[in-house]
Amino acid sequence: MLAIAPTATVLLVLALVEAVSNQRLLFASLASSAFLIYLDPGHSVNQARTLVLAQLGAALIGMLTFLAFGPGYASAGVAMVSAIVLMIVLDAVHPPAVATALSFGLKAGDASNLVLFCLALGITVVLLGLQRLTQYLLVRSLRGPAGDAGRSG
């Protein structure tokens, strides 16, 4: 059951990408983000702040290195190292963002890809919110209608 929501979200993101662009690999790291969110929702790596700062920062870094060095290993290497340093400095470490930096560093091409990536990232943040809401509702339903009122302290 837990795999349904992230799978649906990733498929929605891929459909969005397919409708507007041919750069599917730029969004592969968001599939890993969706998996991590459902694997361990309470971990600091999977917080909305961490997800957004790391993924967006990595995409921007990747695009800037692409513009500075062109497509290739130099751009990808600088993007990867810079993204890791940025995540550490901001205390927003989200491992899939390293793949985002590499993807944009190797093949950013068009600035519209960054806009599209931001939309896909927004969908992933919505996934995070839905996961948290589901978790809250599940815990609440397991407590029953009386909640904690029946317990004596």
UniProtKB/TrEMBL annotation:
Residues 8-128 form the HPP transmembrane region domain. The chain crosses the membrane at residues 48-69, 114-133. Coiled coil: none annotated. Keywords: Membrane, Transmembrane, Transmembrane helix. The keyword Membrane applies. The keyword Transmembrane applies. InterPro entries: HPP, TM_HPP. PANTHER family: TRANSMEMBRANE PROTEIN DDB_G0269096-RELATED. This is HPP family protein. It comes from Massilia consociata. The lineage of its organism: Bacteria, Pseudomonadati, Pseudomonadota, Betaproteobacteria, Burkholderiales.
